[in-house]
Amino acid sequence: MAGHSKWANIKHQKARNDAKRGKVFTKLIRDLMTAAKQGGGDPNDNPSLRLAMDNAKKHNLPKDTMERAIKRGTGEIQGEDYVEKTYEGYGPAGVAIIVKTLTDNTTRTVTNVRTAFNKNGGNMGNDGAVAWMFEQKGQIIYKTDIGAEDTVMEAAIEAGADDFEPLDEVYKILTQPDDFGTVRDALQEKFGDPEDGDLTFIPTQTQPVTDVETVEKVMKLVEALDNDDDVQDVITNMDVDDSVAEKLAS
Fold first, then answer.
1. What is the Cα–Cα distance from 47 to 175, expressed in whole angstroms?
2. Are 9 and 167 in contact (CB under 8 A)?
3. CB atoms within 10 A of CB 113
4. Closest CA to 127 of 91, 98, 87
5. 30 near 82, Cβ under 8 Å?
6. pLDDT, mean over the chain
7. How far apart, in whole angstroms, are the C-alpha atoms of residue 80 and residue 34?
8. Residue range 208-232, pLDDT digits in tens
9. What pLDDT score was predicted for residue 106?
10. What kind and span of H or E run contains 166?
11. C-alpha closest to that of 35 among 194, 198, 228
12. Are 76 and 85 in contact (CB under 8 A)?
């Protein structure tokens, strides 16, 4: 069982707040198009599309907008052609950062990502610069009010999850990438829709940060990257001391 982490809750809160931004619809539409392009337009046969549709519904994306995005992805109607691209780099204090993007113009995106690094105390690296410090996992987040810790943990293990981590307000469940859809479907049937669920990068080596000022510098860089419309997710290996996390949360 993984350990307790207040910092994980801070990141989770940030993720919820990010959903309030105006760009969320753009991201959802791109997710739908890409999933449909890669796996077809039937959510019953395409777990990635089913996930994208669930996320779109959760954020109240209009049904007709969702349907058009899927049809663009399958080629039934014309639309932009988006590609996934991951960038890597370092932030202040040597914190490793992975930036997941979805774009129709890689030249624009790489320029914007590099600028964000340069203006906020970071350095963009080549492919593989920091990826070796992360592993890809499926991550499913549920609020703790869905059930007792032992009950949810047992259900996650039975569904095929790799790890179960109880936090202050949420349960975090990790899976192998290939098992993500199966585990998520099993838990969804038992507990309903999760708060969040996606494939992400989990750090295998963390970078301790022990002062508020440095954490704020890293988060300023993360914010600058995340504000770009082409950026889907920003993941760091920053490990924040509990006392610093409490100051930030206050």
1. 14
2. yes
3. 26
4. 87
5. yes
6. 86
7. 10
8. 998 889 999 999 999 999 989 889 8
9. 93
10. strand 163-166
11. 198
12. no
Q: How confident is the model at residue 128 (pLDDT cuts 50, 70, 90)?
A: very high
Supply the DSSP symbol for 132. G
Give the span between the Cα atoms of 179 and 199, in whole angstroms: 11
Burial class (CB in 10 A: 0-12, 13-18, 19+), 39: middle
DSSP single-letter state for residue 81: -
* Tokens, residue 235: 């993941």
Q: How many CA atoms lie within 13 A of 174 on its CB side?
A: 14
Q: For position 1, what pLDDT does the model report? A: 37
d(CA 152, CA 2): 15
Among 192, 84, 206, 241, smallest CA distance to 135 is for 206
Q: How far is CA 231 from CA 21, 36, 179, 247, in A?
A: 13, 19, 25, 28
In terms of Cβ atoms closer than 10 Å to its own Cβ (0-12, 13-18, 19+), residue 121 is middle
Nearest to 172 by CA among 204, 192, 198, 190: 198
The DSSP call for residue 133 is: G
User: Is residue 142 within 8 Å of 190, Cβ to Cβ?
Assistant: no
pLDDT in tens, 14-40: 554 554 445 678 888 888 988 888 889
